[in-house]
Amino acid sequence: MERQQHRADVVILGSGYGGSIAALKLAEAGVDAVLLERGSRWPVDDTGDTCATQTAPDGRAAWLSETSPLTGAKLDVCTGVLEFVGGSDMNVLAGTGVGGASLATNGTMCEPSPELFRQTLGDVLDHSEMTERWYPQARELIGCPQTSTSPISTARPARSPTS
Fold first, then answer.
1. Ranges of each domain in the chain
2. Which family does the record assign (predicted)?
3. Is the pLDDT of residue 83 over 70?
4. 77-88 per-residue burial string, b: 16 or more CB within 10 A, e: under 16
5. Mind giving me the DSSP string for 131-153?
């Protein structure tokens, strides 16, 4: 493998929602930045088989692990799209590839209800400010469509930016 060296004013770790927006804004401001991602750039095409499915998970469903919370089956070990990190009080699924968490969420963004927001974050952040200012800005930057707040909707399903 050829060794490369690059100097930058800012190093961004991760190409998920936060990292990609940070890279965009820094580039627009003329700041020399480099974005690092530990996972692969997964090819997306019309076949729709880039990622493993929940009904038939394989090694792509886990990051360097024989197990995944999606299945009880033993998986081939590979650098898949999801890393499961189990904790004592919280479990986390992290996207591992170019796009970060959008690999797991298919480029969608759901806003929590005020009750769930407060249950999770308490009074650390203002739900109204997030809903009125920050969620719309994030949706616009990411390119996510607004989703229905109803779990059952008669509207056509929203398509992800990569669909």
1. 8-37, 57-107, 109-150
2. Belongs to the GMC oxidoreductase family.
3. yes
4. eeebbbbbeeee
5. IIIIHHHHHHHHTPPPPPSSSS-
